[in-house]
Each structure stands twice: as structure tokens, then as C-alpha cells.
Amino acid sequence: MQKLAAELPEGLRDPGFAVLLRRIDESPVFEGNRARVFFRGPETFAAMMEAIDSAREEVLVESYIFKDDQTGRSFRDALSRAVERGAKVRVLADAFGSIATRRAFWKEMRRRGIEVRLFHPVFPHVLLQPFRDHRKILVVDGRISFTGGMNIGDEYRGKDEWFGYWRDTLARVEGPGAAALQRVFVEDWDFATDEAVNGPRYFPELPAAGRHSVQVLESGPDQEPNSIRELYFAAVLAAGRRLWVATPYFVPDRGLLDALRLARLRGVDVRLLCLHKPDHFLSYHASRYYFADMLAFGAKVYEYTRGMMHAKVVLVDDGLAMVGSPNLDNRSLHLNFEVACVLYSPDLVADLDARFQRDLEDAAALTAEEFEKRSYLQRLKENACRLFSPIL
Q1: Of 1, 35, 317, 335, which residue is most buried, by most CB within 10 angstroms?
Q2: Marked catalytic residue, from 317, 329, 334, 359
Q3: Is 312 assigned a catalytic role?
Q4: Which residues face 292 on adjacent strands?
Q5: Is 125 a catalytic residue?
Q6: 159 is catalytic
Q7: pLDDT tens-digit series, residues 273-305
Q8: Assigned CATH topology for domain 17-391
Q9: 134 an active-site residue?
Q10: pTM, entire model
């Protein structure tokens, strides 16, 4: 058994937050980890490559998007080197998210000894099935793990001409907490392939690697209630001083919107950082519909103007942060398979706080007065897109 945190984390107004999450998801808090957060693609991918190149037993990769481009091919080559060293390598990609990836790319990976599976791969099933595997996970030898918002593709390194600079967030966890992300992958592999993954190379006993406590939550359409939706809701309720959220898409359900309004009435500093340059028409304009509500009850809303804002981060007071794959929209909170890492560490929260404030320097603040001046056509687009909110 990996070592669990003996005490509740410090820094929260509500000291029972971790216990609440345990009851929601049956997910323990693992202590003794060394965690770090990354904010840009080049540094993130370099750290992931370094971890893959250290693999001796196994590499597990799960990604919503895995592209056949320079970045995807560099990952393929690193995974191939791991196979040559005798490591077992498995890749699970979502069939819809990776729909543009050529079959020849997957075939070449298999030829090199990499086991590849696609989540919901059969046409027209992939088009009719609304449930997608939106998780991003890398686990190396059961001891080093990564999760966050980054898929595998050139745009996540800032190489897309349309978006340019790409802002994302990903967490690296080394130590006992890696077992939680390994377990999520193993369950997903079993679901996608009907192949149980077991053996001595999985879930090794891990010594403490640092002083950070982490908790991993998974969610999907097979859950009732949805764990990560409850995590968002619990975070709003637990916030005593501040609740800062970075998400590209903001399409909340009525309950979450009411909870955010009540947080403002309690005096909580509620800030929302979203994208400015749209990549999905429906989600972008539906989000702007809800900006009006947020501004009306006094929340601060910002649009990131430097490039693409793709990070999924929640900061609660000074002792809790969430980094993961879910957006704050109905698709992530009800239809997708998602994963989130809760970090109980004031120093990690401080890192994320500093980055959030730096991002605000590259963002445009919206005001209720100016937002009310938007055109009739813009309001029409927002209302029309809002009708699709249950699937966005």
C-alpha cells in the first residue's frame, strides 16, 4: 500500500475538503510526492521526453489528441527507444480527438512494438457517440506521472500560426501519487480493449520523493454524481478568500453558476480567465453568454489576448489548487472522461498564483458596462450557441 496523508492539508478555510473528496471519489490523499507545474509546451514536452527516456519497465500514454506532426513523431521515436530498452509501451488515444491522425502513423507505431488502441474507434460510432476520452496522462515505471491540459501536437508547443503562443498547465508528480494516475490509465485500457493490465511491473511500492500531498480524481459519464463536477462545486463552497479559475470554455450548469454567485455574496474574490481567440465557435459564444451573468454579480472576467488560453486550473485560497484535463463546461463535467490532480501545497499554489497574475497582464478585463454594449448580432450568436450548452 502506498502511504496516505495522515493529516488534513493546511491552508483551507474548510479543513474537511480532502475528506469530502475522498467520500465523493474514494480517492485517497497521497503524501511524499515531488510535484511541479509547467506552463509552456517546450519545457513540458522536454520534461516528458526526459521521463520517457528514463523508462525501464513501462510507459503509459493517454491523450485526447495524438497528432502525426513533428511533436507526435518525436513522441513516437522516444516511445520506440523505450521499447528497444525492453519497456512495455501502451498508447491510448481518443478516436474522435485524433481523427485527423493517419492510420499509417498508428501502423508504424505498432510496427515498432508500441501497443496502440483508439477509444471508440468504429465508424459511425465515433460520430454518434458523445462520450470522449479527454484525459491526458503519462506514467513512467509507475513512479513518474504527468497530467493536465496538453495533448500531443505542434500547437501545444506554440507552433500553430493562428494561435501562436499557447498557454497551458500540466503537473508532474513523482512518488506514491503516480499510482493513482496509473490506475486511471489501467482502467481506461481495460475499458477500451477488454484487456486487464496486471503483473509485477505495475503499481510498485514507491518511496517518498518529496513533501507534496496530491489527490487524483477521475470522472466520466459512467458516474453519478460526476466526481469532477462535485470537485468544482466543493471548491466554490470551500473558498473563503479567493476562487480563481482558468478555463478555455465556460459553460456551467445552473447549480455551479448559482454557487459562484453565492461565493461572491460571501465576499470571495471570484476571477475567471478564458480565451479571447476562439477555436470552437459554439463553445466560445456560449461562454460569452455566461460572462454576462458573472459580471452582473461582481465576478472579474478576463480574456487572454497573447495567444491560446488552454489551461484548466482552479485556485482556492492559499492551500489548494486543481490542475487537470476538464474544462468548466457541460461536456467535461457530464459527457467526457476526465482526470484532475488536486495539489495540497502552499508553494505550488504560490507558483500557480504567480502565473495566473502574470497571465492577467496579457489579458483584457471585461466590465459589465462595456459588455452590455456588445452588438445585437453578438447577443444573437451567444443565445443561439447557448442552446447547445448541454453538449458543450
Answers
A1: 35
A2: 317
A3: yes
A4: none
A5: no
A6: no
A7: 999 988 888 899 999 999 999 999 999 999 999
A8: Endonuclease; Chain A (3.30.870)
A9: yes
A10: 0.92
